[in-house]
Specification:
The chain is an alpha/beta fold. The protein is built from 9 helices and 12 strands. It folds into 3 domains: 4-83, Orthogonal Bundle (Arc Repressor Mutant, subunit A), CATH 1.10.10.10; 90-160 and 257-286, Periplasmic binding protein-like II (D-Maltodextrin-Binding Protein, domain 2); 163-253, D-Maltodextrin-Binding Protein, domain 2. Helix 5 links the parallel strand 3 (90-97) and strand 4. This is DNA-binding transcriptional LysR family regulator.
């Protein structure tokens, strides 16, 4: 029913929102672009674009086809790569930070298996600082985690502001020392929490410490204190966590950046293929 050339032209127009610009990007004439879109609309029996002399916009049917067309074109290319024996092969030792397990990480890893049957993933989940050490010592091929302060390596995937989280019944006065639930001091979130409190000279003490996010969540759920973590924790199954009430007068927390990086800036082979997939799908993990 669908011609791949027409679908590629359709996707180019959907991205550029301009017939001439799409033709330039594809190396074809504007008249050919118009012909491809007209034939595709005839095949669908639906109008795909609303267009006038100034703008080009997808219709509701066009938006649906855009999602499907990306899959169709992508699968076609993967099949061509596979049978041309150029599909990535091998096993990638991937490290991800503990908090990424709160996202749709499992969906991404399933996509890896579907897109590249010959590409295997050996997964390690842990503290960001430990993952960086393993990467630098050659025990990991790729890391998807928070960026360490002062480290400019990696491709930015997502930026997120941390939140002060506590059990919904937890209370804290403005003059009270803050009971913290945190990773060991080597972690990025712990460092940011202490910097924020020390910056306003707010006293604090460690009420609970754990090497795992599950341990931090358990301590916070038990009402032992507050933690500086991703707001995604509030959406976890069975969570009673909320953002700490403003009456506690806790200072604002900084943002953290999630990046993907390998042992070299130029990634090739299986690690490069997995990094490309993370760069493509990664931003959607927090949806």
């Amino acid at each position: 029913m669908f011609d791949l050339h027409q679908l590629r032209t359709f996707l180019a127009v959907a991205e550029a929102r301009h017939f001439t610009a799409a033709g330039t990007a594809l190396g074809i004439s504007q008249s050919t672009v118009s012909q491809h879109i007209r034939r595709l609309e005839q095949a669908c029996g639906r109008q795909l674009f609303e267009r006038d002399t100034h703008t080009v916009a997808l219709t509701a049917d066009g938006a649906v086809l855009a999602e499907l067309a990306r899959d169709i074109v992508g699968l076609s290319q993967r099949a061509a790569d596979y049978f041309a024996d150029s599909a990535p092969r091998g096993r990638v030792r991937l490290g991800v930070s503990d908090d990424l397990t709160l996202t749709r990480l499992a969906d991404l890893l399933r996509d890896v298996g579907r897109a590249n049957p010959n590409l295997g993933v050996e997964l390690t989940v842990g503290l960001t600082s430990a993952l960086y050490q393993k990467l630098d010592s050659g025990r990991l091929d790729l890391v998807f985690a928070k960026r360490q302060p002062g480290d400019d390596r990696g491709v930015l995937i997502h930026r997120e502001r941390l939140a002060w989280l506590a059990h919904r019944e937890f209370t804290l006065g403005t003059d009270e020392a803050v009971p913290l639930v945190l990773y060991p001091n080597s972690s990025i979130t712990s460092t940011l929490a202490l910097e924020a409190l020390n910056g306003v000279q707010r006293p604090w003490f460690v009420a609970c410490s754990s090497e795992t996010l599950a341990g931090l969540r358990a301590g916070t759920q038990a009402g032992l204190g507050v933690m500086a973590q991703s707001p995604l924790l509030m959406r976890a199954a069975g969570s009673d966590l909320v953002v700490v009430d403003g009456r506690a007068a806790l200072p604002p927390l900084a943002e953290v950046e999630f990046v993907v990086l390998g042992r070299s800036r130029r990634l090739q082979g299986a690690p490069g293929a997995l990094a490309d997939l993370i760069m493509e799908k990664g931003p959607g993990l927090w949806a």
